[in-house]
């Protein structure tokens, strides 16, 4: 095995080790349940469920790595593909930190900022989940309170609204085309957008990048 | 050894809240915590080597923590939602690793069509755990085997200056497209918002095996978005014009709280 040469090689090596361990830990859970209970999974149901979900998750997973990987950088990508919640937490978190720290994607400084952001976000989630479980009895009625329910139903809308302002300000030319396209798509095919938001995100991103490239080539930006 | 001695004929209700399921969940949480701390520490050391300012490092950490609190509470509510059928530990594990509430609920319903809390068997529970775990691993596997090559061949080219500077715009454009998709989603919900009905922590199916849904078309998400956007504009003005610099790291979290508060007020007025 060749020794790692660059800092990025080391990041990939460490990231792959962590990701391999992470996937193993994930697998450990159902296998432990099987081992402890002595109860095998229903193989027909397992296969059926695996195929049904993989039809969406296989292309979705590939597209997520291809699209979110560049935004996250090396270490944060490996970390995020173990800890999840990419589009609704890790990506906006990394992009927010990047904007606050004024770093450019692809630079060593942004690699640091993105890794710190995703790590800090993950630690926050783990701590909150842990505290939540410990305080489940007093917390449950509060979090399930019908008055507070709308707040948590729409937390992602609040997140992207706030972040939207930060990204739209100063990038108005980049906003017009994807905004019009996605609003029209939402009006024309609401069922499609709501039920397959992950695909709508890719459409929005691709439209935005194509429009930006055209504007860039025409020197409109 | 407990892990090599099968517990004879355990029921699903005994498994899902057993001490060893909690032990597994704690182990997973600690693993993720340790991994995150390792990456954070490595990045911190690298920041020193690069000569980055402490202020930049602090900004990245503080803003990310403050930013993540509310969405994390939202994720925890997912644990409570799923706990009706699956107990606390399995949803805690599943929502701590790669996955999301809608995916886990879908996995549960695909793996155990028509079962309820009362009828769920140990076999159903094990099958659900396997389906949830195996079907979501594709992204991780792809990252494991192809991300490095992809980064070297595609990303580095896109971000290098040989690309005549478009690399700098590329990712802003990409993220703006992503935000616009969420705006499109909020607009779509004004017209049609089919919500799958959840009962006892799982989606329910009708007699033909289709998900039971309700149309809950609503203006609330777009109002919440615009409110959070307005709040962010206000906080941004305070930071830039009134020079209240400490607010910078918290403006996003505070704007989210404002947007969420608007949702609560609308709910109190009967608008959901």
What features would you highlight for this structure?
heterodimer; A: 84% helix; B: two-stranded antiparallel sheet; two-stranded antiparallel sheet; 69% helix
**Overall body shape of chain A:** globular
**Helicity range of chain B:** 55-70%
The overall pLDDT average of chain B reads 88
Describe the global form of chain B. Answer: globular
**Residue fraction in strands of chain A:** under 5%
Description:
The complex is a heterodimer of chains A (221) and B (272). Chain A is an all-alpha fold. Chain A folds into 2 domains: 128 residues, no CATH class; 50 residues, no CATH class. Chain A is built from 11 helices and no strands. Chain A starts with 6 loop residues before the first helix and ends with a helix. Chain B has a domain of 136 residues. The longest helix of chain B has 33 residues. The radius of gyration of chain B is 23 Å and the shape is globular. The model of chain B has no long low-confidence stretch (mean pLDDT 88). At the A-B interface, helix 1, helix 2, helix 3, helix 4 and helix 5 of A face helix 2, helix 3, helix 4, helix 5 and helix 6 of B.
Quick rundown:
With 221 residues, chain A is mainly alpha-helical. Chain A is built from 11 helices and no strands.
Write the layout of secondary structure elements.
The complex is a heterodimer of chains A (221) and B (272).
Chain A: H1 7-37, H2 43-72, H3 74-83, H4 86-101, H5 108-134, H6 136-143, H7 149-153, H8 155-168, H9 172-188, H10 190-195, H11 197-217
Helix pairs in contact in A: 1-3, 2-3, 3-5, 4-5, 9-11
Chain B: H1 12-16, H2 19-49, H3 54-86, H4 89-96, H5 101-111, H6 122-135, H7 138-159, H8 166-191, E1 194-196, E2 198-199, E3 202-203, E4 213-215, H9 220-240, H10 251-268
Antiparallel strand pairs in B: 1-4, 2-3
Helix pairs in contact in B: 2-4, 3-4, 3-10, 5-6, 8-9, 9-10
């Amino acid at each position: 095995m060749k020794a790692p040469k660059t800092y990025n090689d080391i990041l990939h090596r460490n990231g792959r080790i962590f990701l391999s361990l992470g996937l193993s830990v994930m697998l450990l859970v159902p296998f432990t349940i099987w081992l402890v209970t002595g109860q095998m999974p229903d193989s027909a149901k397992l296969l059926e469920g695996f195929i049904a979900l993989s039809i969406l998750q296989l292309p979705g997973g590939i597209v997520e790595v291809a699209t979110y990987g560049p935004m996250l950088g090396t270490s944060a990508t490996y970390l995020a593909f173990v800890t999840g919640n990419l589009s609704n937490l890790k990506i906006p978190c990394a992009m927010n930190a990047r904007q606050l720290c004024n770093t450019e994607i692809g630079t060593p400084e942004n690699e640091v900022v993105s890794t710190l952001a995703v790590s800090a976000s993950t630690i926050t989630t783990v701590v909150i989940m842990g505290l939540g479980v410990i305080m489940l009895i007093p917390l449950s009625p509060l979090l399930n309170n019908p008055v507070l329910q709308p707040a948590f139903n729409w937390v992602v809308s609040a997140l992207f609204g706030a972040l939207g302002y930060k990204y739209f300000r100063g990038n108005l030319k980049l906003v017009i085309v994807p905004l019009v396209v996605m609003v029209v798509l939402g009006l024309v095919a609401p069922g499609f957008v709501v039920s397959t938001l992950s695909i709508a995100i890719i459409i929005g991103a691709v439209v935005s990048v194509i429009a930006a490239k055209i504007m860039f080539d025409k020197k409109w930006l | 050894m407990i892990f090599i001695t099968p517990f004879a004929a355990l029921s699903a209700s005994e498994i899902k809240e057993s001490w060893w399921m909690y032990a597994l969940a704690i182990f997973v949480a600690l693993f993720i915590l340790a991994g995150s701390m390792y990456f954070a520490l490595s990045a911190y050391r690298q920041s020193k080597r690069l000569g980055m300012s402490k202020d930049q490092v602090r900004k990245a950490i503080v803003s990310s923590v403050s930013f993540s609190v509310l969405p994390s509470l939202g994720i925890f509510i997912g644990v409570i939602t799923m706990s009706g059928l699956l107990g606390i530990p399995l949803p805690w594990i599943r929502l701590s690793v790669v996955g999301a509430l809608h995916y886990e609920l879908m996995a549960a319903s695909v793996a155990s069509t028509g079962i309820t809390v009362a009828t769920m068997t140990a076999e159903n529970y094990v099958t659900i755990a396997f389906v949830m775990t195996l079907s979501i691993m594709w992204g991780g596997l792809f990252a494991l085997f192809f991300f490095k090559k992809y980064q070297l061949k595609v990303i580095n080219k896109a971000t290098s200056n040989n690309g005549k500077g478009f690399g700098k715009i590329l990712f802003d454009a990409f993220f703006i497209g992503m935000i616009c998709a969420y705006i499109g989603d909020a607009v779509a919900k004004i017209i049609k918002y089919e919500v799958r009905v959840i009962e006892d922590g799982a989606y329910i199916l009708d007699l033909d095996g289709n998900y039971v849904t309700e149309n809950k078309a609503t203006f609330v998400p777009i109002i919440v978005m615009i409110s959070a956007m307005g709040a962010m504009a206000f906080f941004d003005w305070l930071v830039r014009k009134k020079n209240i610099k400490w607010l910078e790291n918290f403006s996003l979290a505070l704007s989210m709280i404002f947007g969420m508060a608007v949702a609560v007020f609308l709910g109190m007025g009967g608008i959901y």
